[in-house]
Amino acid sequence: MEPEVILFDGSPAVIGSVSRLIIAIVTLGIGWLWFWLKSSNIRYLITSQRIVIESGIFSRRIDTLEIYSIDDIQLEKPLNQRVMGTGNILLLTRDATTSRVHLERLPVDVRHLYELMRPHIQSARQKFWVRDDDVNP
Model-level pTM? Predict the structure, then answer.
């Protein structure tokens, strides 16, 4: 069994888009405080075997998605996020409880992260005998 490799571990960017930056400036920092509170209470852990999303302020919710259940990855790099160096990843999965997982304002090059994830997804799908024709309509 391969050891689990961490590909990304972090929170969404506090000011991950130009529109958030403008709101933070116009509200004299109050918007930044609100965005910081929301971002600091979300944690993404992407490994070679799973994706874990931990969220919540007082009570924590932990969602885990096995990487072999990912059917498709969509990269989103809107202009106002590209300027700030962030991007989004939308995962379309065969998981019954989380068929769409949206990882927002990732403070990394999402294209590079996708290229890191892709071989791990393919090998996990082969390991667990997941075929493309098994997708539920």
Answer: 0.89
